[in-house]
Amino acid sequence: MNTIGHLINNRPSRLDTNDRVAPVYNPATGAISKYVAMASRETVEEAISAAEAAYPAWRNTPPQKRAAIMFRFKELLEQNADRLAELVGEEHGKIGHDAKGELQRGIECVEYACYAPELLKGEHSKNVGPAIDCWSEFQPLGVVAGITPFNFPAMVPLWMYPMAIVCGNTFVLKPSERNPSSAMLVAELLYEAGLPEGVLNVVNGDKEAVDVLLSEPRIQAVSFVGSTPIAEYIYTTASAHGKRCQALGGAKNHAIVMPDADMDNAVNVLTGAAFGSSGERCMAISVAVTVGDSAADQLVAKMKERMQSLKVGAYTDDSNDFGPLITREHMEKVKGYIGSAAEQGATIVVDGRDVQVPGHEDGFFVGGTLIDQVTTAMTCYKEEIFGPVLVVVRVNSMEEAMQMIDDHEYGNGTCIFTRDGEAARYFSDNIKVGMVGINVPLPVPVAYHSFGGWKRSLFGDLHAYGPDAVRFYTKRKTITQRWPSSGVREGADFSFPA
Amino acid sequence: MNTIGHLINNRPSRLDTNDRVAPVYNPATGAISKYVAMASRETVEEAISAAEAAYPAWRNTPPQKRAAIMFRFKELLEQNADRLAELVGEEHGKIGHDAKGELQRGIECVEYACYAPELLKGEHSKNVGPAIDCWSEFQPLGVVAGITPFNFPAMVPLWMYPMAIVCGNTFVLKPSERNPSSAMLVAELLYEAGLPEGVLNVVNGDKEAVDVLLSEPRIQAVSFVGSTPIAEYIYTTASAHGKRCQALGGAKNHAIVMPDADMDNAVNVLTGAAFGSSGERCMAISVAVTVGDSAADQLVAKMKERMQSLKVGAYTDDSNDFGPLITREHMEKVKGYIGSAAEQGATIVVDGRDVQVPGHEDGFFVGGTLIDQVTTAMTCYKEEIFGPVLVVVRVNSMEEAMQMIDDHEYGNGTCIFTRDGEAARYFSDNIKVGMVGINVPLPVPVAYHSFGGWKRSLFGDLHAYGPDAVRFYTKRKTITQRWPSSGVREGADFSFPA
Amino acid sequence: MNTIGHLINNRPSRLDTNDRVAPVYNPATGAISKYVAMASRETVEEAISAAEAAYPAWRNTPPQKRAAIMFRFKELLEQNADRLAELVGEEHGKIGHDAKGELQRGIECVEYACYAPELLKGEHSKNVGPAIDCWSEFQPLGVVAGITPFNFPAMVPLWMYPMAIVCGNTFVLKPSERNPSSAMLVAELLYEAGLPEGVLNVVNGDKEAVDVLLSEPRIQAVSFVGSTPIAEYIYTTASAHGKRCQALGGAKNHAIVMPDADMDNAVNVLTGAAFGSSGERCMAISVAVTVGDSAADQLVAKMKERMQSLKVGAYTDDSNDFGPLITREHMEKVKGYIGSAAEQGATIVVDGRDVQVPGHEDGFFVGGTLIDQVTTAMTCYKEEIFGPVLVVVRVNSMEEAMQMIDDHEYGNGTCIFTRDGEAARYFSDNIKVGMVGINVPLPVPVAYHSFGGWKRSLFGDLHAYGPDAVRFYTKRKTITQRWPSSGVREGADFSFPA
Amino acid sequence: MNTIGHLINNRPSRLDTNDRVAPVYNPATGAISKYVAMASRETVEEAISAAEAAYPAWRNTPPQKRAAIMFRFKELLEQNADRLAELVGEEHGKIGHDAKGELQRGIECVEYACYAPELLKGEHSKNVGPAIDCWSEFQPLGVVAGITPFNFPAMVPLWMYPMAIVCGNTFVLKPSERNPSSAMLVAELLYEAGLPEGVLNVVNGDKEAVDVLLSEPRIQAVSFVGSTPIAEYIYTTASAHGKRCQALGGAKNHAIVMPDADMDNAVNVLTGAAFGSSGERCMAISVAVTVGDSAADQLVAKMKERMQSLKVGAYTDDSNDFGPLITREHMEKVKGYIGSAAEQGATIVVDGRDVQVPGHEDGFFVGGTLIDQVTTAMTCYKEEIFGPVLVVVRVNSMEEAMQMIDDHEYGNGTCIFTRDGEAARYFSDNIKVGMVGINVPLPVPVAYHSFGGWKRSLFGDLHAYGPDAVRFYTKRKTITQRWPSSGVREGADFSFPA
């Protein structure tokens, strides 16, 4: 069976004898499909050394030349979309249309990296004093690292290294060990686009590899996306080692449904937002907060009906709406949350625990689940389920709904369904959440804005991708310049340098 | 013999019965190679109508989608570089390496157009008053026009319409009637990249077509590059018809050679700057101002030697340095300037008037020419020659050199050769010229800055391409918003809209 | 009787023997209160010469030092608010609270000028090629001019010269000859704040002075605010003389009242927007477009009632809502418009023609006037009345209302009253007007945005004040720099220059 | 004897019974001049509560209104410059001209805070999808804290809270316990300028107070300036508590003196840079690196001569160049560094250890000291002395000099003295230091750029004051908006809400 190695200095499938291996599953069948190497300290250090060696020349490459590689990278990603979607489907389980959607969002981050010559412009001040000028440059950091999660195996790496690299840094990526293949292929395509050897390196691994990246003094910065406990560990550890760090964690995204909402529209878009990609998205809507019982009753009734047509199955059938969960353990955990809701007094309106996918009896499937009458005290409300489960909490006022959202530990995304300008403005202004949708259930910012939650959904000052990524992957240098006369201009040195 | 038509609504080679024709020459042979249609008023109006019809849908197309077409356009331009260089060579005469260099600068403007989602961001102010917000959008103008010169037949159109179009405008281009083929092919490639019908239209023609574009009320803006008298006419006429206009005109670009300059380097780069593309560049260096006789003597001696190896000939031989002039009339005019210099007392150090190009005896060739002891009173100093002629003016101080530059009617580009920080800073700060080089003889700004001269080299507020082009092709709209309470948020309207 | 002179080189009350004089009225009494000199060509040229002489030193003064004067200027304007309001009231007629409001908006433009060090930052690109840097500076133009209208005698000059001057230009102002005193005092305060002699100069005058400013070659740019026919003349003439120009003209600002609008709020704010400052504002709402007869009937009824309490009178009584018109001629013209409406079939709901102001029987007063059932064919709809007259046009759909606005020759400001997010967004996106209010009747952009209409309300590329003013009052210079090695760094020249 | 308390909710001189006290010295006399309260946990929590209570209203105050207070604050600071300089002199020891210089730099940061309406503009994107808009706002964080050092008691607090407050945050400041009085007065002036109660609070104290600020969950961010070990503790502790943090630490700023430098100019400006404020500046030049022995010999000779005229003494005499060190302990430490240099083989060229200041025999004075022949192995090179001591390290090449700088643990400021464009550009590009001077010995960025070192001179992503401070004191919120049709625009809801 195939074992996936690392990519160091553009040598694919490198394996160190110290590296352990871990299985990679096909979640639709429940079977192991391949193995992946778990990098030892030595392997990670070798990757860092490769990045370090590549840095000086890359740093001095004009940004426009760096961007030229990103233009070609974009073309190659588009040309290889089918292959990439297949790899994502096989190891993650998501359906082809969803995998391609993920890839498209990643490609848009590559497009943003193409803008580097504009984005890297510094600020120039003439005459800060008499004949004294001052300007600020945004210089690269050196070798930086990214650690990415299983749920967007192709996209999240593309949030990070295109911008890091186009800013002049060199990079070490550690993708999720659950589904490393698409990240490996994407990295190979960047080399095919013309990247010099060593500028990007991929190591597969687990905590051993991560801990090297967090402590190695040559790593200047770490970007992470994953769960909140790990994000907090990453941030605290990397910070204590003097590194710049941004660590994105978990979420519990609420949608407020106001009585004046266009209910058919709300139900329609919430279905995708709650169950798409089996709910394994940090921007998935997992809580619907209905204002007034009438809105609640309508929403639950229409949603229940809409969910009849949801189709769960393997990634190989593009007519499916969503696929399995990532592991058997995670499937059991999600089912446990549904069970706890029932035990704690909620009403299971649609129960996905016993979903059957013919031909894939051992796949890690949970069907779309709708739970009504949930309270903020219940486990299924307090914790991030990361499965195809939408809970409904009924409140009596918009203020009550907003207070609930603000009280939750997470602050990633949220949205409101309303037709009212004033309600929307009040909500978006005051809610303590980083990404807000107004009638947009998944308010993932476009690639030319930045992605980031508030509260315990993000540790760090700067958000991911977009303008904030430029600042994250560069440091400011400010130069103040005055030229004393050397007599050249006045002609005193006329004879020089004959 | 082939007759080139127009491109309206993506229908190539359209010809109207009213259109006249004009000959297109191969300047290397002196022979007519094809004909080109001269658009009548009706043809131009038809092009405008096509652009007008395409406008509403194009305006509402998200900028990112418009940029996606530019990404593909860039790929196609790169793939067709050889074909385009061949067309440029055949009709303009410039050598392949030079034609490809021109194309590359044009492609970089397409890359800048790809940044549209970033460039079109408006300014958003929260709480300009209590619960009042204000923001500015940069909206497209509508149908805009470009009129481009013979000397960069592939590049200058790409200064204009990629940015105009990506900003949401639709476009009518009138390229030079001397060498229209490359502009036609470039436009076809943009359609191949996915441009909707009618967004770009090309009409070939002369003053008849131009005057329609300047006066037709549906044209919102005009961009022009050419000579100063025409630029002034274009600007005044378009302005009087209420149109936004930027009109770039002629140049007389001086290089100051300071006594401390690295003379070998100066001679080397000045050779390309003065004679490249036969001097038919609005950024060509046509005057070397030497400070001190020692610098002058060195420069003239080294330049004379360097010019021995200059190779003039047809575009078909890539080892040539430069090719013929654009027309027989222009060749005679350039020779006349050289003759006038001799008559008015200057010293012809190297005389290119009798250059022989075997096998191309009827081509419009003038060889590289160096004229020393030129004064500001001579015709060859005062006027733009637009040929491979470098004149040397000797002065005794940098101040004298700068005064001379400031006194000239043109203010396009200039440069200084020095090793001295103070001299360079003083020069770049004070000189009344829009584009300044410090040891860079052709200070053409990169595509992510903007191109524009001062004084009578540019009429209009905003420069060409780069950030200024975004402002030129958009108009600011400022929105101030306050939402009165409708009771939705407070719950008063709970029953609505059941 | 006092005669107001000019302010050249900070010498107040200068008078040339060639200068004619014109009367200045107190519109509340109808009496001449003083005279003002009408500058001859010689006087204007003297002012230009003063500005020209002051330019070189001012241009080289660091922006932060220039801004320091603006900080002090702001303080002095605040300290002199009462004196200034008195002068505005006496010569313009507007009530104290209104005059102070005007002044406050002007002061906010001075505050914006204080930001100059930030606003003048150029764009700096490192490594546009190997070891080649490029940056753009925004340099001042030289001597620039402003020509300002009677209706905001204190504010509009402050739209112009604080920004022009803080950018490094020197200035010649020609204020309205109707009410020059406040502009004179404001200019004196700027000198009191520390402005060097000659940087600002004020000439009073009429067309003779204006024509000098439009044609004198030393004037680099002209800013104008006034009526459209004059704006067009200014723009065309200045452009033909090679000057940068922005000319703001007339307006006919429509407010759409949607059926879902908060009608009490709409009536309340429309009252101020229509009748404040007697309607002599280019942002006054002069047309209410009601969608549906129910909205129309409500609006007219409530507005009629609201207008009962409008108080018209002299500026000396701060409880008045608004004052007289500027001249007897203008008063008659406004009354003529009201009469024409009646003749052409409209319904005069409230008629202000016979308003009585006890003790001010000869003042130029017209009372608040409401006209219903107006059509687009009527004179009172087509032309700018510039008086306290609100006309109501009834339509049946929002599309009809928007088409009417787009068809009007002016495109200065507009607003919509609605509670609906979708209607507001559609309106603000599509309407062909430069400044848009959503439930904001006077959408004058705050000082840190820019002011400008579309269509025949503004001639030029760049709007007034705010970010656009920075671009209007500066020109871009782009510098490309490469340093050849002189051996200093490598140590070859160690002995130099001992 | 007077005891300085705290400033909570604008109640001056508040004292809690739990608070301890510490002495405040007059360093020029060596005597205790007053005492200062050391805040207990309860006192700090009370300050935080005051800030928390003030936050909601302040957050919703329009930025322009917040900036209006900063405009008045600037005026008051200027009016109170003498009083403030007196307080700084008395407690810190620096001479009046130096104290006023410090204050002026602080005032410039207040000026920058006045620009808030411009600086807080968000990014607005129209049509990120069909009729979908997206924009980013920069919202305040909440309650934030600043901890400031003794060496710039008036300026460093002004680096922090004006920007924090104008961005909408409320603030708790803990100034240095060595010299708290000027910070107290400055804070009182901000209240006099109109700050609402509780927006700024000052607590005096030591580690007990600091630790509350680092761990209290209501504190959202911490800014710190001090020594590197404390900065690292602050950063690690605050980060581990989930706070945003920027912590500025120590420095060892090198000046490279090239053989082509204007030596008289270099000596002149280095004198101020090395000995000004007794070297107690994190931007002081403490190492001169001479390239070539000729440059070294010249520099040492000229510097020795120049230092003869240095005048050390009490702050009360404005003709003094610099004053005492901050404490007796610090004075002894500085003398110890000088002694170690001698012991380790360096040459003490000028020895300030035995300086006599008549009438101030118990003051903490050390005179200007110059040490030649220093090596990188010596203690006086490796550690930050923070006294009036300049060491000279002799090297043979610029590369050697740069390697030395890059190898040092600190990377705050550096400069080069040269006349050569190429050397300057190479140095500023490659040196691993955050603030670079070219012939500018103290390259402290102006207030509209940002201040920050690299390596162990700054912990955190964003620099102090200027544009980076705006980002540090705000968090990004991104809103994506789509309006479903409610029928209002199309007229379906015509009857609503009659």
Detail the topology: elements first, then pairings.
Four copies of one chain form a homotetramer.
Chain A: E1 3-4, E2 6-8, E3 11-14, E4 20-26, E5 31-38, H1 41-59, H2 63-79, H3 81-92, H4 96-114, H5 116-119, E6 122-129, E7 132-140, E8 143-147, H6 155-166, E9 170-174, H7 181-192, E10 200-202, H8 207-215, E11 219-225, H9 228-240, E12 244-248, E13 253-257, H10 263-275, E14 285-291, H11 293-307, H12 328-343, E15 347-350, E16 369-372, H13 379-382, E17 389-395, H14 398-407, E18 410-411, E19 413-417, H15 421-430, E20 435-438, E21 454-455, E22 458-459, H16 466-472, E23 474-482
Parallel strand pairs in A: 1-5, 8-9, 8-11, 9-10, 11-12, 13-14, 13-19, 14-17, 16-17, 19-20
Antiparallel strand pairs in A: 2-3, 4-5, 6-7, 7-23, 12-22, 15-16, 18-21
Helix pairs in contact in A: 1-8, 2-4, 2-7, 3-4, 3-7, 4-6, 10-11
Structural notes for this entry:
Chains A, B, C, D: It comes from Marinobacterium maritimum. Chains A, B, C, D: Its EC number is 1.2.1.27. The structure is a homotetramer of 498-residue chains. With 498 residues, the first copy, chain A, is of the alpha/beta class. Chain A is 39% helix and 23% strand. The first copy, chain A, contains 16 helices and 23 strands. Chain A is globular and about 90 Å long. Chains in contact: A-B, A-C, A-D, B-C, B-D, C-D. Chains A and D meet through strand 6, strand 7, helix 9, strand 20 and helix 16 of A and strand 6, strand 7, helix 9, strand 20 and helix 16 of D.
Average pLDDT for all residues of chain A = 95
Question: What's the tally of helices of chain A?
Answer: 16
Low-confidence stretches of chain A: 493-498
Give the second-level CATH assignment, the architecture of the largest domain in chain A: 3-Layer(aba) Sandwich
Shape designation of chain A: globular
- Report strand % of chain A: 15-25%
Measure the end-to-end span of chain A: 74 Å
Number of domains of chain A: 2
Most extensive interface, chain pair and sizes? A-D, 59 and 58 residues
What is the topology, as strand order, of the major beta sheet of chain A? 15-16-17-14-13-19-20
CATH fold category name of the largest domain in chain A: Aldehyde Dehydrogenase, Chain A, domain 1
CATH superfamily of the largest domain in chain A: Aldehyde Dehydrogenase, Chain A, domain 1
Structural class of chain A: alpha/beta
Percent in helix of chain A: 25-40%
- Assembly status: homotetramer
EC number (chains A, B, C, D): 1.2.1.27
InterPro entries (chains A, B, C, D): Ald_DH/histidinol_DH, Ald_DH_C, Ald_DH_CS_CYS, Ald_DH_N, Aldehyde_DH_dom, MeMal-semiAld_DH
Organism (chains A, B, C, D): Marinobacterium maritimum
Domain Aldehyde dehydrogenase (chains A, B, C, D): 20-479
